[in-house]
Amino acid sequence: MFIQTESTPNPATLKFLPGQTVLDAGTADFPSPEGAETSPLAKRLFGVSGVTGVFFGNDFVTVTKDEAADWDHVKPAVLGAIMEHFQSGEPVMAGEAQSSGHKEFTGEDAEIVGQIKELLDSRVRPAVAQDGGDITFHGFDRGVVYLHMQGACAGCPSSTLTLKMGIENLLRHYIPEVTEVRPVAV
């Protein structure tokens, strides 16, 4: 098994591509070891010293390390944990996948929210998946769009710039009702 590694805009996060499907649908975010019990692979990765976050996409695993840890020490252990897991035959997720998609929204702005979600799905999410993360809709209130950043996007130094200059400008261009984009922590 050959696992490719890619850097992300977040220096604390690396993207690992095992060359096979990680999740059939959706994504799964584990920003801390609590909650990792639903995933044998996440549990295994949190067993590596220095790992503070795990995120799964369709064909990749994103791992975040703490500031004190050095990738020269963490990366080989993460590669070993991923390889061990896929060779063990265990599932990535025990039971239902976590599928962290957009938050449901009903109300008078439902049509605008539908447009926001469509733009996020067609233009934004594929781009941030390339960087090992995901951005999902969390809310809309009086022109302000609230987005949840996951994986490499969470805590990335360039995430504010991505939100303000990239996503906010895109949404404001296509949807005049949008005035601002803000991140939310869930």
Automatic annotation (TrEMBL):
<dbReference type="InterPro" id="IPR001075">
    <property type="entry name" value="NIF_FeS_clus_asmbl_NifU_C"/>
</dbReference>
<dbReference type="Pfam" id="PF01106">
    <property type="entry name" value="NifU"/>
</dbReference>
<comment type="similarity">
    <text>Belongs to the NifU family.</text>
</comment>
<dbReference type="GO" id="GO:0051536">
    <property type="term" value="F:iron-sulfur cluster binding"/>
</dbReference>
<dbReference type="InterPro" id="IPR034904">
    <property type="entry name" value="FSCA_dom_sf"/>
</dbReference>
<dbReference type="GO" id="GO:0016226">
    <property type="term" value="P:iron-sulfur cluster assembly"/>
</dbReference>
<protein>
    <submittedName>
        <fullName>NifU family protein</fullName>
    </submittedName>
</protein>
<dbReference type="Pfam" id="PF08712">
    <property type="entry name" value="Nfu_N"/>
</dbReference>
<feature type="domain" description="Scaffold protein Nfu/NifU N-terminal">
    <location>
        <begin position="3"/>
        <end position="89"/>
    </location>
</feature>
<dbReference type="GO" id="GO:0005506">
    <property type="term" value="F:iron ion binding"/>
</dbReference>
<dbReference type="InterPro" id="IPR014824">
    <property type="entry name" value="Nfu/NifU_N"/>
</dbReference>
<dbReference type="InterPro" id="IPR035433">
    <property type="entry name" value="NFU1-like"/>
</dbReference>
<dbReference type="InterPro" id="IPR036498">
    <property type="entry name" value="Nfu/NifU_N_sf"/>
</dbReference>
